[in-house]
């Protein structure tokens, strides 16, 4: 049997990133934290934490991080239910990872449906958010992975549509000619970060080959779009933002009728948690109105987006 105090300590080390920070959070000494981790590793027979900055779980430690978070959440909810109206209530805390464009757009309003919950939000590229689920760092994720992470449920949310746009001056300088495919390999590009491959994916649909143009990296959603408005280069912008800028003349659509749809999924721990269930309901409701949905069903299965 796993010792609950040792499991909670291990989870705190991963959550807070160091033995000292975990000790402060648990109101114990760093020596006590170290002893509990060593004892837990002896029980499991594996090294569970990589002593780095920050501390990260090993492959053997990942399931225990998730277990520690699940136990803490269920314990909190059971204690609140037992206390009822007479007890002093502490708010439930949920850790969630979401891609930057969703966080800047449709996702945050969903959280207002749960005023009793405290959120610990993380952000990463939509193709990498599921890694935090695997590590046990978060309880739920907006991700492009449609196959369920071990120990998780997955539900389709919809697709976020992106339009290729540029400032009028950039459009005139690089994209006004008849050979659109010739412009993308040489025209300056704006990317969110090095994980962001959306621009390359779209350009490949036009050029039918990989490209390596001059590239700016702007790792913030609002600043990313502003960099394109200011003429640093072209990029893919969420449709709702792009449409208003196109209508106002701040941006020009580079290939009318062409776009990139990114299907998004909601993955969350497979456990009976009232807070996690309520969050799932709120996120799905927000996505149903904000994201594009498949146009039809075939044999009971939702069709893919164009």
From TrEMBL:
Gene Ontology molecular function terms on file: DNA binding; DNA-binding transcription factor activity
Name the Pfam families for this protein: HTH_1 (PF00126), LysR_substrate (PF03466)
Q: What UniProt keywords apply to this chain's record, in alphabetical order?
A: Activator, DNA-binding, Repressor, Transcription, Transcription regulation
Keyword match Transmembrane: no
The UniProt record lists the HTH lysR-type domain at: 2-58
Q: Which domain of life is it from?
A: Bacteria
In terms of InterPro entries, this protein maps to:
ArgP, LTTR, LysR_HTH_N, LysR_subst-bd, WH-like_DNA-bd_sf, WH_DNA-bd_sf
Spell out the PANTHER family in the cross-references.
Answer: HTH-TYPE TRANSCRIPTIONAL REGULATOR ARGP, TRANSCRIPTIONAL REGULATOR
NCBIfam families xrefs:
argP, PRK03635.1, PRK13348.1
Family the UniProt entry places it in: Belongs to the LysR transcriptional regulatory family.
Name of protein = HTH-type transcriptional regulator LysG
Species per Swiss-Prot/TrEMBL record: Krasilnikovia cinnamomea
């Amino acid at each position: 049997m796993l010792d609950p105090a040792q499991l909670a300590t291990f989870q705190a080390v991963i959550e807070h990133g160091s033995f000292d920070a975990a000790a402060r959070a648990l109101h114990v000494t760093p020596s006590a934290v170290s002893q509990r981790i060593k004892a837990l590793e002896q029980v499991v027979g594996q090294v569970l934490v990589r002593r780095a900055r920050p501390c990260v779980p090993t492959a053997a430690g990942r399931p225990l991080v998730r277990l520690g978070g699940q136990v803490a959440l269920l314990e909190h909810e059971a204690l609140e239910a037992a206390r009822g109206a007479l007890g002093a209530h502490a708010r439930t805390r949920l850790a969630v990872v979401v891609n930057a464009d969703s966080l800047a757009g449709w996702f945050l309003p969903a959280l207002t449906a749960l005023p009793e919950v405290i959120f610990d939000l993380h952000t990463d590229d939509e193709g990498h958010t599921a890694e935090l689920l695997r590590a046990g760092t978060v309880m739920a994720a907006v991700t492009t992975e449609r196959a369920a992470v071990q120990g998780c449920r997955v539900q389709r949310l919809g697709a976020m549509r992106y339009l290729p746009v540029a400032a009028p001056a950039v459009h005139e300088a690089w994209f006004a000619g008849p050979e659109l495919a010739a412009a993308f390999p040489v025209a300056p590009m704006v990317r969110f970060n090095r994980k962001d491959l959306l621009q390359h994916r779209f350009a490949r649909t036009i050029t039918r080959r990989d490209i390596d143009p001059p590239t700016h990296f702007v790792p913030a959603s609002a600043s990313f779009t502003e960099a394109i408005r200011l003429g640093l280069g072209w990029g893919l912008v969420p449709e709702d933002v792009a449409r208003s800028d196109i209508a106002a003349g701040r941006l020009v659509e580079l290939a009318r009728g062409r776009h990139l749809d990114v299907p998004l999924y909601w993955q969350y721990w497979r456990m009976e948690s009232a807070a996690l269930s309520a969050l799932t309901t709120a996120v799905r409701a927000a996505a149903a109105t904000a994201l594009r949905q498949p146009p039809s069903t075939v044999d009971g299965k939702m069709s893919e987006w164009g």
